[in-house]
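# nightly structure sweep
# worker-07 picked up a monomer target from the shared queue
# config: single-sequence mode, recycle default, output format = structure tokens
# input follows
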Amino acid sequence: MPPATSGQRLRVLWLSTISFTLMFAVWLMLGMLSIPISKELGLSDSQLYWLALTAILAGSILRFNFGVWTDKYGGRIMMVLLLLLTVVPTFLVSQIESYTQLLICAALYGIAGNSFSVGIAWNAAWFPKDRQGLALGVFGAGNVGAAVTKLLGPLLIATIPAVGYFDGLIPGGWRFIPVAYSVLLVLMAIAVWFIAPKQDRCPGRGKTFAEMSAPLKHRRVWEYSLHYVVVFGAYVALSGVLPKYYYSNYGADLAQSLSLSEQTVADFPKVKKLQSSEYKDYLKANPVVAEDLKKLTMWIGWLAGICYVFPASLLRPLGGWLSDKFGAKVVMLSVFVTMIAAGLVLSLPLGLNVWTFTAALFVLGAGMGIGKASVYKLIPDSFPDSIGAVGGLVGLLGALGGVLIPLSVVPLQSLTNLPQMLFAVLLGLTILSAVWFQTEQWLARRPIQQNVESEQAVAV
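# output follows
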């Protein structure tokens, strides 16, 4: 195949990045929509956890397979396939009337999360090694899709009429969001099919599954997977629960900071416990509080999006550039130091106010954003011929961390009654990951030191 041109590479990079941003927004859309959905359907916190975890799991377990398939069949075909497979279940979210229906939809539209493996393998096939860090960092910035619903969702919910348009054919309120996403998914599939290079690069074509899976026996693959649990799995977990965390733990604090009505501030502890018909009846009887809660929800979306999701996503290209320039190992060590410092502040019962909490969250997100890029620079450095398979497995296990972290947090919160146990679990994982990282660096240097000592002994 002839060498790739700059124009071809850029088309692959921008089409894959936009597709990934859209599908990431779909994958994690329940993070922000969980507040109005839980009120309408009367869902418990446990049910909300299972909804989020179901979508995350569906976007995780096939990541290895999609990475291998992309190397074999090409990113253009696999990206279009994922976009189209996600359309129908995304649209059906707008029609749900029960928890069971929503759970089934989450299991089906959650496949969108596998777009990460497709994009990583697709871009790695088109970019040379000395530019892969920046390219994969730019693509990975599509994680910002997690902020799309948080930023635009509350605004659209507040502005779109509750009855929708065309006699309800296009629903209003929160139900408008999945309809809009389903239309964008179709349009994006058409764009990828017609704009991406027709003759794709498939580095795995002709290789057997066993040959492509061979690198997975190396210890380094599992080390990188743990690092990715810390910088990405935890990011997914926090993106899914952060709006609810803000609402439950800082809603009253934020309402007071925003100078909302005295009634809203006074009644908030009671209001946040109301569900279904009781909640609707209260809002009808108290229109001032209803308007205030819309403002509060909008601010929560902005805080979670701008102060956490943005740095954890948009700094990924910077992490890729730094990894290309100074080496991924140096960058990774800096990430661990930053995340451990922020994790300590967020984990200890310090009684943080909403703004101090948000500042520490910003630092944590910045570390995650840079760290996600450095992990995926380590992969082509160590396994240049197996990026699809290794990247797929690392992505799979990293995303599974988004499932396991919330599951481990629930019993700890029940036992301690401390909401910050969510961050304490992440802190423990970060310390474990940093110790493994440093141990591997020491083991890698040890043979060199032994050889030097042996040479010195011979010289003596």
